[in-house]
Amino acid sequence: MGVSLIKVEGLFAQAPYAYASSADAPGVVFTAGACPIDATGAVTSPGDVTAQMQRALENLSMALSAAGCGLRDVLKTTVYVAARDRADLMAAWSEVEAAFADHPAPSTLVGVSMLGYAGQLVEIEAVALRPGS
Fold it and tell me: Higher pLDDT residue, 4 or 99?
């Protein structure tokens, strides 16, 4: 059984990690934390938890797609929020809940003091199962 590291066209190309990985069998896919950054590596929507979570979910979807999966294939997510208060957590969670509306996979929501990029407020990672595996 081999491991495939997956780079994703359209996401920041200089990231020092793969955006997803999978094992040849049984088709489990692990994503890196999807951040609210554009293809140039710039953090989008500074100060806006909701908009950043929307962008992070778009980036997560791109990474899953590159691995042959979609949101409906997700087994579990972990959501990180650099929260000033509980409202920030709930704002981020509202976007995750909407994205996974018809597939409410298990998830962990974590408030943290900071994330990797300056101005980054959210991050989401996922474990998925490639269809047909």
Answer: 99
Mean pLDDT of the chain: 93
Q: Is the pLDDT of residue 25 over 70?
A: no
CA torsion 113-116-122-123 (nearest 10°) is -120
Alpha helices in the chain (DSSP H): 49-66, 86-99
What domains can be seen in the chain, in order of their start residue? 3-129 (3.30.1330.40)
- pTM of the entire predicted model: 0.89
* Strand arrangement of the beta sheet that strand 74-82 belongs to: 3-6, 20-23, 28-31, 122-129, 74-82, 107-112
